[in-house]
């Protein structure tokens, strides 16, 4: 470009101007250089020292949430001048999440420290007035009132506890001692004595046969036949003391240190040709028991042979588990009917054997004495005792006899299973325990709230397996409600 050519005056032509413009720094670079020169790098240590000398920054007067609450209350305080109620319902609902909760509308707390204690109020009443109040209560409730606090004990004295020692107040004494069960994990309530005894086999209690002395605590009436310990018969030679029902239910209510688990009470034993298996389960605070008894039975037994198989000659009770009402009703006739369904072996010699073979070939069947036995409509249904919570199921099963000389042999066996409710372990005077031992006459198992719609066997089996029992009709063991006892002749 020539010198005379138009253009800006600062632009120069020539070879030197070309290189000068190319090596000239850009305007942006000059700007950064100027800023870096003008702005020096701050010293953080100096800034921290300066802020320390001046002090912390001033705090705001109110927290942001509290300032928002005050602002909202000022702008939305639409109150009725006559009633003082908020007219804007939208604002009223919104303020529920902003305003602080009012402690006056909270439920009363028992452990609230601001609650005024009641001890001074008890001190205001005279001992004569408290004595008159205690006289309006029964001996058990009066003793509970006296043991509620130190102040009440000083007002009432030892008179409520002395009244419990009277023989006529034995029931009230037991009711009062039962209320102390939770505070005594290492003791057991002895009902013949009416006092607590220290457990001598704590955690190691086990059910044993009746002829074995198995004391759970030291009691002066342990071997007194006139005042025995409450117990219930399981089978011939086996009983369950009420103390074990206490141990199982206490462990369920309060913890394992109070007793035993229900599964630890189960046992297996054999006696007089019968094998027994017991199992226990707690349902809704009550101890349930299942006892399955089995014995091998031959076919075609006479009436006397059936009695020898079913009854003990010592006490004339059944070898299997039964309640106190087993003589009344159809339990024993149903067992005898089931024995008659065992198939009899055929005569294979001579013309009788040839006749049976011809009949089997014509009918297309083969006789098998070990086939599955089907019971009739009389002995097949499950029986429930109407006077106590007990259910019975009678079956004929094919079982293996391992005691045979030539090896294991399969035979037909009679199996009688009993399910029963032993109660909640509170007292031997309870409805379930008293009913199964024949101590109560006002128990109706078919109208009871627990088993009116569901059987004891169904409740028990559902707790251990998902499989259910075969569909069985549950009928009354004594449909005519005749109470003949030993005077009747059907039981034997």
TrEMBL record:
Residues 1-61 are annotated as: Disordered. It comes from the Eukaryota. This is F-box domain-containing protein. It comes from Penicillium diatomitis.
């Amino acid at each position: 470009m020539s010198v005379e050519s138009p253009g800006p005056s600062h632009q120069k032509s020539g070879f030197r101007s070309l290189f000068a413009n190319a090596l000239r720094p850009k305007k942006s670079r000059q700007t950064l250089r100027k800023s870096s020169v003008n702005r020096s790098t701050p010293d953080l240590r100096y800034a921290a020292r300066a802020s320390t000398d001046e002090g912390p920054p001033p705090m705001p007067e109110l927290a942001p949430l509290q300032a928002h609450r005050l602002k909202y209350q000022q702008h939305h305080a639409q109150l009725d001048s006559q009633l003082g109620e908020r007219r804007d319902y939208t604002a009223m609902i919104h303020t529920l999440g902003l305003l602080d909760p009012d402690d006056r509308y909270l439920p009363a707390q028992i452990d609230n420290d601001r609650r005024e204690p009641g001890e001074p109020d008890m001190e205001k009443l005279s001992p004569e007035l408290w004595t008159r109040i205690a006289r309006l209560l029964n001996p058990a409730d009066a003793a509970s009132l006296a043991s509620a606090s130190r102040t009440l004990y000083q007002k009432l004295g030892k008179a409520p506890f002395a009244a419990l020692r009277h023989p006529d107040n034995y029931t009230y004494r037991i009711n009062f001692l039962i209320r102390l069960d939770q505070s005594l994990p290492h003791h057991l309530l002895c009902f013949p004595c009416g006092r607590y005894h220290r457990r001598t086999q704590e955690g190691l209690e086990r059910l044993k046969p009746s002829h074995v002395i198995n004391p759970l605590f030291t009691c002066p009436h342990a071997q007194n036949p006139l005042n025995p310990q409450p117990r219930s018969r399981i089978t011939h030679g086996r009983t369950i003391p009420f103390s074990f029902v206490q141990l199982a239910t206490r462990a369920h209510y309060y913890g394992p240190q109070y007793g035993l688990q229900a599964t630890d009470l189960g046992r297996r034993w054999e006696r007089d040709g019968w094998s027994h298996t017991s199992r226990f389960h707690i349902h809704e605070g009550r101890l349930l028991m299942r006892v399955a008894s089995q014995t091998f039975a031959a076919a075609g037994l006479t009436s006397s042979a059936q009695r020898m198989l079913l009854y003990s000659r010592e006490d004339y009770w059944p070898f299997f588990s039964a309640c106190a009402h087993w003589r009344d009703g159809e339990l024993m006739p149903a067992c005898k009917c089931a024995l008659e369904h065992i198939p009899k072996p055929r005569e294979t010699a001579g013309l009788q054997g040839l006749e049976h073979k011809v009949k089997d070939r014509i009918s297309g069947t083969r006789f098998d004495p070990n086939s599955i036995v089907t019971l009739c409509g009389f002995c097949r249904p499950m029986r429930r005792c109407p006077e106590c919570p007990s259910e019975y199921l009678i079956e004929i099963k094919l079982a293996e006899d391992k005691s045979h000389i030539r090896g294991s042999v399969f035979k037909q066996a009679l199996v009688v299973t009993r399910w029963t409710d032993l109660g909640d372990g509170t007292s031997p005077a309870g409805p379930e325990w008293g009913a199964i031992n024949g101590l109560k006459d006002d128990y109706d198992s078919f109208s009871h709230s627990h088993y009116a719609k569901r059987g004891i066997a169904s409740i028990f089996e559902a707790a251990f397996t998902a499989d259910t029992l075969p569909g069985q009709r549950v009928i009354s063991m004594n449909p005519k409600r005749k109470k003949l006892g030993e005077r009747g002749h059907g039981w034997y």
